[in-house]
Amino acid sequence: LVNIARAMGLDVDPDLTPGRYGLYESEARRRAWWDIWWWDAYTSTLSSRAPLIPLHAFSTRLPLDVDEEVFTSACTSAPLLSPTGKEGVGRWFGMRVRLAQLVKDINFRTSLLSSLEHPSVLLSLEHASQCEAEIKQWLLDLPPAFRMGNEGMGEESCIPPHSSMTLSSNASHGGTPPTLLAQRLDILMTTHRLAMGLYLPSLRPHSSLSSDSHYNVKHETSPQTHQARVGALTAAHGLLRSGRHFVELVCARPDLVRRKDGLGLSLCCGLVCDVHSGILFSSPFSL
């Protein structure tokens, strides 16, 4: 599919060939390319494989946030969605692409770090803290419509209480349409899982030293390991909370929630991290 898209020239922005494509066709080509780019980023993340489309290997710009209901081939100008106007497919399309860009960029830098023969724990933690700060800032910079309360990694207030999340087929939470709520939860699950993965490498001793019991005791009781465990556990809690509410929403409005192939894997990762941390905190080597 990626090769076909490249053969069609979708990886080259239509503005680089003036006069060849009209406004509507140009936006359609951009949207087709970024849809393929998103699926490549999504599937490569789930399978832990390198994406087929490298970063900066194309010139196609992001599509505009247009009003899908009125944008047709007859339009001479793009009917843009206002920042405070209604939400639609166009705005979420761009938002999920920007979310995938964040994931792809951080995963790329993390893979560079893991390519070192023996990256130090301090170097890994410094990278994790820096990337987590970028995720927090990305969440703070979200348009108001996609923010979930007081946004922040690991904050209890970022998800409404369980009792207030009961949804019916004709009701929405706090006046928020269920579709928009699903999109917000999608963003939270993705960012929490991304943050959790940043700290996991710091919790694994080097394989060559894994049989050294003295090293393992020192590793488990170090301040760096404690910092990594707290970071991973905080993100895992946020992931599980977001996933629980996402499942509730799926049960109430399955017609409004797109297929989420990585939901089970994400929740499993969060659960394993929680259980693992619980075992370690109850062990004689925990802080």
UniProtKB/TrEMBL annotation:
Biological process annotations from GO: DNA-templated transcription
Domain named Xylanolytic transcriptional activator regulatory: residues: 2-77
GO cellular component: nucleus
Record's subcellular location: Nucleus
Matches recorded under CDD domains: fungal_TF_MHR (cd12148)
Family matches, as Pfam families: Fungal_trans
Superkingdom of origin organism: Eukaryota
GO molecular function annotations of the record: DNA binding; zinc ion binding
Major subcellular location class: nucleus
Keyword Lyase: no
Alphabetic keyword roster: Nucleus
PANTHER family: UNCHARACTERIZED TRANSCRIPTIONAL REGULATORY PROTEIN (PTHR31001), ZN(II)2CYS6 TRANSCRIPTION FACTOR (PTHR31001:SF81)
Official protein name in the record: Xylanolytic transcriptional activator regulatory domain-containing protein
Species whose genome carries this gene: Suillus placidus
Source organism phylogeny: Eukaryota, Fungi, Dikarya, Basidiomycota, Agaricomycotina
